[in-house]
UniProtKB/TrEMBL annotation:
This is Uncharacterized protein. It comes from the Bacteria.
């Protein structure tokens, strides 16, 4: 059984919660083709992740996928900024 540290778990929750909110959106909310394509590509990136356990959270595949996909979430940006600050300290 694989154990994830709390930061990895929080990062996964941020990304997957965003995808869940997109998938569970109300029927009357209009979704653009671009939003749908982005979500599909993000899911593809997440599916292709390999389990690569490193101590450096900043360079994990789970961190790189949202950065590569230009994941536009305030929670993610705050999380990433905190991770970089902790690494610098």
């Amino acid at each position: 059984m694989m154990h994830f540290d709390p930061d990895e778990k929080m990062l996964a929750e941020i990304v997957f919660n965003n995808l869940y909110c997109f998938a569970a959106s109300k029927e009357n909310k209009k979704v653009t083709f671009r939003e749908m394509l982005y979500s599909k590509e993000l899911l593809g990136e997440l599916e292709s992740l390999k389990i690569n356990k490193t101590e450096d959270l900043i360079h994990t595949d789970l961190m790189q996928a949202p950065i590569y996909m230009n994941f536009n979430s305030k929670l993610f940006i705050n999380f990433y900024t905190r991770a970089v600050s902790m690494k610098i300290s």
